[in-house]
Design goal:
With about 280 residues, the protein is of the alpha/beta class. Helices cover about 40% and strands about 15% of the residues. It contains 10 helices and 11 strands. A 6-stranded parallel sheet has the order 1-11-8-7-5-6.
Length: about 280
């Protein structure tokens, strides 16, 4: 039986730590403020934005909400971001992705001041991560490191395999695991003999966005399996990239979906907001 890594519990601990820090800052006369910008009314984005606002309310961070119509021009959005960059009382800026097709996401990310980029997507923060300098780290990979550490899982010297090479998860995940002295392989849709590669993994991070893709034959006996996927199965039920029922008996530890990596992303966003204020 695998140890179930409880992201809800661990994210709760982190949020309580953040809450205490926010209170300390308030005693010093500093308020932590996060500006959240949403374009359009994509249902998934609305759920994420609401969860972020709830987390802010819980830890004592003031969230400013900017809800823009789907038809907003790129210029208008960029000028709002510039305005927020200049606001002394705003510590963090978050523009909810994805954005409508007519808006260049890269341009928006580049416009956010690196000191307020609590999502950790700005090239300056990505560059800092790659050379081991301090900066904001993308929330999902940062959350995965906390899940491993707080579950007593050693990364040093372990064979780590990431499946997926996105800028938001795969690439920063590789950098963080290297910083923790893991031996890292990044595999993806073009990898030959994927099963052979994943079967070497002591720690397997599945981040390809394909429902229940990873079955037991992809997993080494006793491996730690981190499931980053958020998909719907044929019955419309939330599931990950890992076929939990087939993998769980073989794994040493595994994250469930929901309740694994998901809650950690928001907990790390709160952590980044406090760092921005400090």
């Amino acid at each position: 039986m695998a140890m179930i890594i409880d992201g809800k519990k661990i994210s709760g601990e982190i949020k309580d730590e953040v809450k205490a820090k926010v209170e300390q800052l308030k005693e010093q006369g500093k308020e932590v403020v996060l500006a959240v910008v949403q374009v359009g009314t994509d249902p998934a984005s609305t759920v994420y934005v609401n969860n972020k606002k709830k987390a802010c309310a819980y830890v004592g961070i003031r969230s400013l909400s900017y809800e823009l119509p789907e038809t907003v021009s790129q210029e208008e959005l960029l000028s709002l971001v510039q305005e927020l960059n200049e606001k002394k009382d705003v510590n963090g800026i978050l523009v909810q992705l994805p954005l409508p097709r007519h808006i260049d996401e890269d341009k928006v990310i580049m416009t956010i001041s690196p000191e307020k980029d609590v999502d950790g997507f700005h090239p300056q923060n990505v560059g800092n991560l790659s050379i081991g300098r301090k900066g904001f780290v993308s929330c999902t990979p940062a959350g995965i490191i906390q899940l491993l550490k707080r579950s007593g899982i050693t990364i040093e010297g372990k064979e780590c395999v990431i499946v997926g090479r996105s800028n938001i998860v795969g690439k920063p995940m590789a950098m963080l695991l290297i910083q923790e002295n893991g031996t890292v392989t990044v595999s993806h849709s073009r990898t030959k003999d994927l099963k052979e590669v994943t079967n070497r993994a002591d720690i397997l991070v599945a981040a390809i966005g394909k429902a229940k893709f990873f079955t037991a034959e992809y997993v080494k006996e006793g491996a730690v399996v981190i499931d980053v996927g958020m998909n719907r199965d044929e019955n419309g039920k939330l599931c990950g990239d890992v076929d939990f029922d087939s993998v769980e008996p073989k794994a040493g530890a595994i994250t469930p979906v929901p309740g694994g990596v998901g809650p950690m992303t928001i907990a790390m966003l709160m952590t980044n907001c406090v760092e921005a204020a400090e």
